From TrEMBL:
It comes from the Bacteria. Residues 16-233 form the Orotidine 5'-phosphate decarboxylase domain. Homodimer. It comes from Microvirga puerhi. The gene is pyrF. Substrate binds at residues 22, 44, 71-80, 126, 188, 197, 218. This is Orotidine 5'-phosphate decarboxylase.
Length: 243
């Protein structure tokens, strides 16, 4: 795979749009990356693809000058997390997720020391709402309050950023300050189906709320023309950024 260099509308937003390769086939993922071309510079690889050969694809993308977000949501005893993060740092990934439990976050920060890898803490999954937290035993804490609590812990521990639903981004930004990353999944262009997400917004809304990076999967990778879908989202992000 090679990068093309034609000028694109909104290309200043390309490093803020993370395209989620939420598919099960490396060959299909390679084909999508090829079709998107230089409309995409940043790709997310999560469980679905990682365990189907996605780590080798990550190496290919990095070698080709792309950025890779490994959405692995690590959570284990501290030593295991620290050593796992060190391995990811050697791979050359740009972003890595861990669950926002204090011991896990501390171990991840230790594991990435001396590398450019940035750690993102996952606060509350975007498929969860207050009823899911009650079922999991978190009552009476609301989704918004739990996100805020974990964001504050992540800030104090030295994590590089937070993954949160866009509706929480403004509150999280106030907690984190101006310099840390806020990555928002669950992004759907206006009129798109929301699928299994419960806390979704448009790309423009996420940018206005203070997100630094947007993760968009199905609206791009399942589109008839993934490149055109990515360009449309980039244009919406650019318009919101200029407003």
């Amino acid at each position: 795979m090679s990068l093309r260099t034609e000028s694109l509308p909104g290309e200043d937003m390309r490093d803020r749009l993370i395209i989620g390769l939420d598919i099960s086939s490396v060959e299909e993922a390679r084909g999508i990356v090829e079709r998107i071309g230089d409309a995409g510079t940043f790709y997310k690889i999560g469980y679905q693809l990682a365990y189907a050969g996605g780590f080798e694809l990550a190496r290919e993308l990095i070698a080709d000058g792309k950025k890779v977000f490994l959405d692995l949501k690590l959570h284990d005893i501290a030593n295991t997390v620290e050593q796992g993060v060190r391995s990811v740092a050697r791979l050359g990934a740009t972003l890595l997720t861990v669950h926002a439990y204090p011991q896990t976050m501390r171990a991840a920060v230790a594991g990435k020391a001396g590398s450019p890898l940035k750690i993102l803490a996952v606060t509350v999954l975007t498929s969860y709402d207050d009823s899911d937290l009650i079922e999991a035993g978190y009552a009476p804490v609301s989704t918004a309050d739990l996100v805020a609590r974990r964001a504050g812990q992540a800030r104090d521990i030295g994590v590089d950023g937070i993954v949160c639903a866009a509706p929480e981004a403004a509150r999280v930004r106030a907690i984190l300050g101006p310099d840390r990353l806020i990555v928002t999944p669950g992004i759907r262009p206006a009129g798109a189906e929301i699928g299994d997400q419960k806390r979704v917004v448009t790309p423009a809304d996420a940018i206005r709320a203070g997100a630094t990076h947007l993760v968009v999967a199905r609206p791009i990778v399942k589109a008839e023309d993934p490149r055109a879908a990515a360009q449309a989202i980039l244009a919406e992000m650019s318009a919101a950024h200029r407003a």
